[in-house]
Design goal:
Blueprint (H helix, E strand, L loop, with lengths): L1 E2 L6 E2 L9 H48 L4 H4 L2 E5 L5 E5 L6 E9 L5 E4 L15 E7 L2 E8 L5 H10 L3 H4 E7 L4 E7 L8 E5 L10 E5 L4 E5 L10 E3 L3 E6 L2 E5 L7 E8 L1 H26 L1 E5 L13 H6 L1 E2 L6 E4 L6 H15 L26 E3 L11 E3 L13 H17 L1 E6 L4 E5 L8 E9 L4 E6 L2 E5 L5 E4 L9 E4 L7 E10 L1 H12 L12 H64 L1
Antiparallel strand pairs: 1-2, 3-17, 4-16, 5-13, 5-17, 6-10, 6-12, 7-8, 7-11, 9-10, 13-14, 15-16, 18-20, 19-20, 21-22, 23-30, 24-29, 25-26, 25-30, 26-27, 27-28, 28-29
Length: 608
Amino acid sequence: MATDLISGQISFAGLGSGTDFSSLIEGLMKIEQRRVTSLETWKATWEEKVKEFKDLNSKMLSLRTTLQKMDTVNEFLAKTANSTNSSILTATANGEAESGTYQVEVGAIAKNDVFITSSGASDLNTSVVSSSSNFTFSYAGETYTISNIAAGTTLTGLLNTINTHPEASKYIKATTIYDGTTYHLQLTAKDLGADNQLAISNTGAMIFSPSDFQETQNAQDAKIRINGFPSASDAWMERDSNSITDAITGVTLNLKEASPGTTATITVATDKEAIKENIRTFVDEVNVIRQKILDITSVDTNYSGSDNSSDTTTKSSWQKNYSSNVSTGSSKIKGSILTGNYGLQIISQKLNNLTAEKGLAFEFYNEDTGEGDLFSALSQVGIYTDPDKGSPTYGQLLIRESTDDPSKKFQTLDWALEKDIDAVAHLFADNLRPESKSSDLAYVSSLEGMTSAGVHEVSIVTSGAGISSATINGEAVAISADGRTITGQQGTAAAGLQVKLTNFQANTTITGDIHLKNGKIKELVDELEVLTEEYNDYTDEGGPLNVLIHNYGDIMDSINKKIEFEERRIAQMEYNYKLKFSRLDSTLNKYSNIQSQLSSQISKMNQS
């Protein structure tokens, strides 16, 4: 035996007893290592769960991003705008645009001011400033000065000075025009419109005097008539841009060329196919989340694989614990990695409820009274959940776009779009759309991000002079100075909601509801924001997945500590075994030597 007292290592090679203590210790350590292997397998199941949580959370964030691109009626309700003369103007339209035709005449297009010097330099590196100078110009009625331009500044240097000056660079752009022999300085106003006139008043000791600057293009406004308005021969609608957004609601006119006396017809129409594509995108993206949850929570009731408990490399503890024989005696039940997980149950239930229930603050339509929302649930526009467990699309949202059966045409997507395309858009993309249910109360305004969608119950008590007290949803509100308008207070569901009393009656109590409607897309966007909220270490709050990821991290940290403890324990045990067996081997070797000596002496005695 050899012992390294410094390192504590012991070698059993070449011992006299002939006993293989190294193999014996190695076998004992393998037995002790089973607990570490079990802990590592246990930890691996938590790591797998966290991986799936992160993947699902990422998919929900992606869904939210996609839905945010169409969570208003303007974004969702696709419209087209076509021009009969695209050389004069083109147009685009959003959801606010009314379908129809518009006759547009372009009398002038908006232009900016442009000045070019009559004199110039033969080379860009020629000095154009003989002594330190100031350059002063006016723009849109305001005067600006570039001070102390150094003597010897070249034409290129002057361009850089103007184009990098903190104020001048906001309003003008300096370039050069080369006529074949001379480089001329060109100053271009950055804004269109008649009000943005440019004038140069001082150039100091430059080779260009103010009078050298010749106006080659005069700033002017765009001029248009729409459907013959204004009717006077010299009257026009004027704008300081060639992209006009405020002349026709929801329509942007892009002017290309002036053509007085010629009209271009703009036709605005609803793009039904684009709307259907938005709906398909909604369904497809929601199904990504549904399928992910199904994949990681499903139960296989016909599992026929092995349940060999010793197979720790392919079958983790959660699988063994979730597998059991059923009545047939041959098939088994196997759960997925997160079968029964309460966090996923919460998420699945919330998302399923949102797509199944009527829209927030929507009301079912009453055919007799004509009150309510024509479409208040997705099922009414042909969207439903596949209930067939044997179907490859089980649990997914499906779209019934059309049917050949006349008796079943109702509640198909094509029928709904034909019936009232705007109502379909409201169901999907409403964003705090207001409706007062009382003739005495008028909705004034609300604040996105502060005011909650839903039904807000208003109660107002009046005195002889005006509103004496009021509440929204039972919470006190602010009352305007004129005693006619109330505003929800910060920190309440009605924060920022303004309601006006339209039918004042002294000394009475007036009640009524204000509905702020959110469509299904906005509901999902808001819910996904909550479900994917980052974990806050200070409040111990966050979205359910991020809370679970945090909690599972604590569990894995605890397992790591157990593994570290076991590894230290096993290392110490191995060291102790080596010490004990080394002593034993030494003792056996001692007695073996004694035995040899005695045998030798006895042999000699017998010979004598």
